[in-house]
Design goal:
Elements lengths: L2 H14 L3 H5 L2 H7 L13 H16 L3 H17 L3 H5 L6 H15 L7 H11 L6 H15 L2 E8 L5 H12 L8 E8 L6 E6 L2 E6 H15 L1
Parallel strand pairs: 1-2
Antiparallel strand pairs: 1-3, 3-4
Helix pairs in contact: 1-10, 3-4, 4-9, 5-9, 7-8
Length: 229
């Protein structure tokens, strides 16, 4: 399927709607460990959360705990979905060492017994010690990206103003899978909701973004009016 056909399909859909020592090292130590070929993250990530996610991937690979680490972070990602106030709490500048310790213990409780070798437990302690608990949600998202890349998957992120039904997502996945955008990889659909886009869709696959949102169209119209005037 050509990119033009994919775009037409998207337009149609958019119109429809709505290990303890390891973690005591600093980030520079993590980066040095990542140089080892066996444990090197499969793709390069950016941002502070990307740096920490890559460091965690390396540490988990070295201790053969990638699967358990992935499951633990998936459990934490679900906590963020259920508790929208959690990011605000983790980013609070007034958190005391005691507060951070209690937060880490509570997060551990949500992970259950699947954290092999306490890899994630020690990682959480490192975030707390470095005043970086606020990036945990981003780390969870980017670790998922790393694991998908390691499995030969590619994220297909679909952002809409309201929840999309499964049939729309399936049609969208099928359209992209037949196109050049998929690069022949298995797609992993990630559905996100952002009311700020006002309508339509924003589709991200690999390093490409197709913005069919209402907000983007309004921004273009405003720019055209401004340039004209």
């Amino acid at each position: 399927m050509s990119s033009g056909r994919v775009r037409r399909t998207l337009v149609q859909l958019a119109a429809r709607g709505p290990a303890h020592r390891v973690f005591r090292a600093n980030v520079r130590g993590y980066a040095q460990a990542a140089a080892v070929q066996d444990t090197k993250p499969p793709v390069a990530l950016f941002g502070l959360d990307g740096t920490y996610a890559s460091a965690l991937y390396t540490a988990a690979a070295k201790t053969s705990s990638l699967d358990s680490t992935s499951k633990s972070l998936a459990a934490l990602a679900e906590v963020f979905k259920r508790d929208t106030k959690l990011p605000l709490i983790l980013n609070a500048p007034t958190l005391s060492p005691s507060d951070k310790s209690q937060i880490v213990q509570e997060l551990q409780r949500h992970m259950g017994a699947q954290d092999k070798g306490d890899t994630v437990k020690n990682f959480l302690k490192t975030l707390a010690d470095n005043n970086r608990l606020g990036i945990l949600q981003g780390v969870c998202d980017k670790f998922t990206t790393l694991m998908g890349a390691a499995r030969g998957e590619m994220d297909l992120t679909v952002t809409s103003a309201a929840k999309l039904d499964n049939k729309v997502l399936q049609r969208l996945e099928a359209a992209v899978a037949r196109s050049e955008y998929s690069q022949g990889k298995k797609l992993k659909v990630v559905s996100k909701i952002n009311p700020d886009i006002m309508g339509g869709l924003v589709v991200e696959v690999g390093d490409r973004t197709i913005d069919l949102s209402v907000s983007a169209k309004i921004a273009k119209m405003n720019k055209l009016l401004t340039d004209t005037l």
